[in-house]
Specification:
395 residues, alpha+beta, four-stranded mixed β-sheet, four-stranded antiparallel β-sheet, 11 helices, 8 strands, 41% helix, 12% strand, globular
Length: 395
Amino acid sequence: MTDAAELRRRTQELLAAHPPATTDRADFLAARFDAGLAWVHYPVGLGGLDAPRSLQAVVDTELAAAGAPDNDPRRIGIGLGMAAPTILAYGTEEQKRRFLRPLWLGEEVWCQLFSEPGAGSDLAALSTRAVRDGEDGDWVVNGQKVWTSSAHVARWAILIARTDPDVPKHRGITYFLCDMTDPGVEVRPLRQITGEAEFNEVFLTDVRIPDAHRLGAVGEGWKVAQTTLNNERVAIGGARIPREGGMIATAARTWRDRPELRTHDLHQRLLDLWVDAEVARLTGERLRQQLALGQPGPEGSGMKLAFARLNQEISGLEVELLGEEGLLYGDWTMRRPEHVDFTGRDAGYRYLRSKGNSIEGGTSEVLLNIVAERVLGLPAEPRTDKDVAWKDLAR
């Protein structure tokens, strides 16, 4: 299945058999998945047709023109962008068939239990423990995770935990799929500077995870997590947007609609940021074309870096452009939204929300190291913990 014409034909057959105007949304999405038109590059039977990833745009264009419903990707972005590619790469056949279909359909929302309050930017220093109950029994997990988007609505979580404290920190980690409805999982809202509690902290107390929900080999969780993290950074920083889309769109619209606010200095800064945003957009398009040929690599870290910097600088310019109006804030009501909204609401919200862009999905400091070492090939920073058992590290 490598032909664009054939994919168009299959898409038209789907639309003819399930007209979007008269077909229930859930039924249409299920039919699309079963036809292999969800992720065309996934295997047959798992939402795909073993087609080149680059041909997904052929299907998406046809469906969009017909007014077909999508699967609300903002609500299930963690599942689509992080859990699914990791399960595809490391899951057993049983795991793939159990999790991928309801994930894509949006029937089961996913969250990511990686970050911890005691590990900071050093994810490999995590201390959440998973201990095997008998040689072939369940894993019993205890610990705390933080900054967990969508935990309050998620059914499943991708989780990494320490299973061997006697080896260096990167080697004693195992990757699990955790049922968020299980006893011992407690989700607490984490209110942000925006007033919302989009993030959560999650406490795990004697949570039992069957070994059948382990992803990858015991002790190789860091390797599995790299697939998740590489896809996460592409999902955050490399999303497809139209020209003058995203954060720059609101600033440009304010400039055009409010001529009385303009100054020469602000005009020059807006032009500079508009060009930077367009360069980032085109670079993201090139990255997606590279991804069509294989798995995402460390290049996605560069896109995530640019995404954070641009959002913060553009939102700051917009607040400054609005003058006294930019100091207003529309609504501090405590909410627990179902999806991340980087650009919504008013200028004050965009300014405050963008502060998190340089933290979530890997801090900008860590991503600078990744770009330096893995993209540019510069010497790695000296490390004193490389060969030290995790239990012996100073904490």
